[in-house]
């Protein structure tokens, strides 16, 4: 799957914040290549794996600190079913779809983290959302960091390589949070491009056609197909795009889920990948480290599951009670006194999150966002779902996803309002400095019985490397 050097070794390039060329790649579509390879291998093992295509997980079953399975819906038929399990591993991805401009897949609506939250598991560090600097203008589609790794420039509307002002050593290969804030500063101060001066440029022209088509073909086609720009001849309009969720379900180093601020574990419940928060990334992930995390902790989770599953006894699940809880939620959505438009609520939420809880934040903006989310949560209780059927009811699934987005967006805002400092991807103009004395701790959001939340904290575990100021 990987690109190779002339000596047939795996090729490597630098990504943002890297001190060495350590990013292995496949042109500029590494994830795509790996996904196809992994899917192919899983299909080869047919009899060893049972794949439930077109099923949608709706509820996590945890009783008395023990995970017992999930409730899921067969979207082809609308049938609900309880899946009994001694161990459950979530790999449900991030929550970037709460933002209007995002690189995330349409399915990244935080379904897994909200299922855990509603089952009594706290969510950790939800305020830390990474914004990638090279999102395609107005679409948010990711233009890979490979573009800057291969030597692409970032230009403002005056065709100036502005990163020399913000990261004079690393320039375009500074960490994502610094580069995104630099772009947003250029835009906010009137040095953006276009008639509205609301974007900057990714310039690849000096790389030449041959290098672009060999090393960056996907970027070329995305720019051409979506906004009609030929990257060989013209700079590409870009803007920061919500990209990665540092927060999520808290886990230990073996992906076992943590249930409280003292570090107790939920028996039989595991999480790995972007839905989890083992916190190897802290408040800001470096490029390529997400894949590294998935490989390392996917492996650790599998080994630990193999070890502990035989030791956990099967326990009874009240199927009727679990199914009734899910049916009640669905019936409430389908049969409410409907007056509100689902798409309008989702769009207003996403615009609010992008405009007021984005690259730059203030207490005033987040307070306003908090009030807006409460208004949208109230309006959602009267949301109109046109399709009342059971077969492939995507309208219902969109409503369920929106309920999740409204719930976790409130936690992003709450964590950000409480954290009166700037750290990594969380930057507050009213508290622009990092404050290790007060805020070297993880935020934990617990769901209350009335549907509200409570914030608690647990200390950051510092081992080999002491925190220090970053200089680029």
Structural summary, described in words:
With about 475 residues, the chain is α+β, with helices and mostly antiparallel strands. It has three domains: about 45-130 and about 245-310, 3-Layer(bba) Sandwich (FAD/NAD(P)-binding domain), CATH 3.50.50.60; about 130-240, Alpha-Beta Complex (Flavocytochrome C3, Chain A, domain 1), CATH 3.90.700.10; about 320-460, Fumarate reductase/succinate dehydrogenase flavoprotein-like, C-terminal domain (Methane Monooxygenase Hydroxylase, Chain G, domain 1), CATH 1.20.58. Helix content is about 35%, strand content about 20%. The protein has twelve helices and 19 strands. It has a four-stranded antiparallel β-sheet with strand order 8-11-10-9. Strands 3-4-5 form a three-stranded antiparallel β-sheet. A three-stranded mixed β-sheet has the order 6-14-13. A hairpin with a 4-residue loop joins strand 4 (about 65-75) and strand 5. The model has no long low-confidence stretch (mean pLDDT about 95).
């Amino acid at each position: 799957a990987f690109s190779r050097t002339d000596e047939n070794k795996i090729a490597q390039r630098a990504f943002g914040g890297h001190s060495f060329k350590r990013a292995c790649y496949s042109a500029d579509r590494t994830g795509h290549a790996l996904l196809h390879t992994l899917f192919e291998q899983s299909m080869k093992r047919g009899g060893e794996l049972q794949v439930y295509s077109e099923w949608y997980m709706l509820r996590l079953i945890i009783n008395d600190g023990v995970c017992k399975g999930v409730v899921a819906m067969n979207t082809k038929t609308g049938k609900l079913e309880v899946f009994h399990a001694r161990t459950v591993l979530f790999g449900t991805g991030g929550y970037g779809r709460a933002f209007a401009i995002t690189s995330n897949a349409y399915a990244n609506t935080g379904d897994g983290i909200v299922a855990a939250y509603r089952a009594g598991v706290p969510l950790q560090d939800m305020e830390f959302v990474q914004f990638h600097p090279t999102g395609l203008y107005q679409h948010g589609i990711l233009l890979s960091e490979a573009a800057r790794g291969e030597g692409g420039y970032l230009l403002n509307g005056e065709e100036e390589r502005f990163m020399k002002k913000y990261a004079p050593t690393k320039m375009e290969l500074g960490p994502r949070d610094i580069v995104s804030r630099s772009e947003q500063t250029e835009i906010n101060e009137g040095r953006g491009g276009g008639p509205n001066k609301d974007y900057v440029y990714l310039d690849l022209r000096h790389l030449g056609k041959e290098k672009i088509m060999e090393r960056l073909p996907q970027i070329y086609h995305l720019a051409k197909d979506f906004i009609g720009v030929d990257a060989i001849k013209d700079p590409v309009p870009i803007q920061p795009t919500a990209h990665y969720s540092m927060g999520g379900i808290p886990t230990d180093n073996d992906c076992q889920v943590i249930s409280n601020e003292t570090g107790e574990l939920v028996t039989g419940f595991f999480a790995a990948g972007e839905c989890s928060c083992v916190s190897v990334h802290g408040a800001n992930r470096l490029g390529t480290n997400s894949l590294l995390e998935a490989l390392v902790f996917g492996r650790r989770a599998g080994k630990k599951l193999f070890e502990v599953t035989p030791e956990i006894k099967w326990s009874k699940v009240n199927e009727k009670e679990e199914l009734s809880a899910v049916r009640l939620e669905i019936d409430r959505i389908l049969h409410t006194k409907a007056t509100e438009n689902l798409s309008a609520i989702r769009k207003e939420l996403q615009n609010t999150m992008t405009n007021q809880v984005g690259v730059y934040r203030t207490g005033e903006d987040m307070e306003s966002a908090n009030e807006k989310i409460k208004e949208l949560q109230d309006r959602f209780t009267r949301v109109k779902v046109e399709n009342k059927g059971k077969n492939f009811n995507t309208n219902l699934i969109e409503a369920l996803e929106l309920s999740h987005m409204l719930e976790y967006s409130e936690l992003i805002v709450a964590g950000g309002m409480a954290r009166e400092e700037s750290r990594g991807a969380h930057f507050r103009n009213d508290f622009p400095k990092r404050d290790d004395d007060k805020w070297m701790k993880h935020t934990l959001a617990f769901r209350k019985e009335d549907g509200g939340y409570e914030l608690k904290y647990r200390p950051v575990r510092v081992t080999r490397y002491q925190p220090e100021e970053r200089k680029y």
